[in-house]
């Protein structure tokens, strides 16, 4: 039931570039065919560092969503939403803040790193310290077990696991839990109950993760298994009490090797990017101006692709025959640099063409984007509300 839900968020940075496409977005495109996915704009997260200049956030959010759609994120498969439009995230953040140890937050590596990196800004704020906990709320509220992130975010996912574990430990034990769990096992019927108990023993004695997976699969097949019973059984299985919040796992997104216009990694802060939907004239101009092997001053000087940023782009965009043509032609001064750049220009334009095409209807009628997001917000809220009902009750706030 809770299994296999993917969730990821992106801060609204405005127009995305080809580095985002080759790194994060292609990964999302693959995942949306494999699992139920939720992708959201982390606009509150933008405020944790940008609280003094909030003006651009809304515009950047819409631009970024259009880029997701342009890249092929499919709203019929994935739920797309905006964090601040699902205020339950804030409620969960607040409730988790009651039990999240301050020391855990202070030890998250990005806390000190970012403060040092963004030295010009005063980041000794409550919100900035709590930012990994807000991220935990983002994840835990959907009981998402798979969170695709880059390497820098892995400590945040680990932090979220610890928060979930602590929560379940503190609030997951209802009075009479063991007895209720045993009754729930009995209700599985004798055959299933026997398998379930064996798998539980396997896990508890040998830490056998496969046994956990098989036990979950077994529960998936029980017709009409009550929500409360399932929670008890999952808790009983892992020895944690009721599993109210699911411990998420990171799905590491391989770092994009997408080189920028200067041979460094493509990044907005290096000013070496090509945006997803950049117009053809601008792409051509940027490529033509790209630096090449600095030793190749004249057309008849032989060059060395190993020190040329254009060659790095050939490795992304060109087939073997073309790459052989570059190697041979460059080293023998058989081709000129502009000639060499043309297949890369063509490759980038060909990659962008379908993106531009997919974006056009949304640019023509922005209401379409609003509708997709309104629909996504609604779906996300539905899921978030279900979790909050359990969380409130577990924390002693059930007034119904
Ligand atoms: N912190 C992430 C970043 O800066 C964005 C983010 C916020 C996120 N909440 C999330 C990513 C939840 C994954 C899951 O890139
Ligand atoms: Fe670079 Fe190509 Fe010029 Fe060689 S021919 S220096 S690989 S642009």
List the ions, cofactors and other small molecules found in this model. tryptophan, iron/sulfur cluster
Count of alpha and pi helical runs: 18
Could you name the CATH class of the largest domain?
Alpha Beta
Span between N and C termini?
Answer: 25 Å
CATH architecture of the largest domain: 3-Layer(aba) Sandwich
Strand line-up across the major sheet:
1-2-3
The helix content, as a percent range, equals: 55-70%
Q: How large is the radius of gyration?
A: 25 Å
- Biggest sheet features: 3 strands, parallel
Write down the CATH topology of the largest domain.
Rossmann fold
The amount of beta strand, in percent, is: 5-15%
Say which CATH homologous superfamily of the largest domain is assigned: HUPs
Order of helices and strands: EHEHHEHHHHHEHHHHHEHHHHH
Please tell me what the overall shape is: elongated
Give a written overview of the molecule.
The protein is mainly alpha-helical and 400 residues long. The protein contains 18 helices and 5 strands. It has helices spanning 18-31, 43-50, 57-71, 88-97, 102-107, 109-117, 126-129, 131-140, 154-171, 177-187, 190-206, 209-220, 227-238, 280-289, 309-317, 320-331, 337-364, 366-394; strands at residues 6-10, 37-41, 78-82, 146-149, 249-252. The strands form 2 sheets. Strands 1-2-3 form a 3-stranded parallel sheet. A two-stranded parallel sheet has the order 4-5. The two termini are 25 Å apart. The model has no long low-confidence stretch (mean pLDDT 94). The structure holds tryptophan and iron/sulfur cluster. Iron/sulfur cluster (SF4) binds at residues 292-293, 296, 303, 305, 308, 310-311, 326, 330, 335, 337, 340-341.
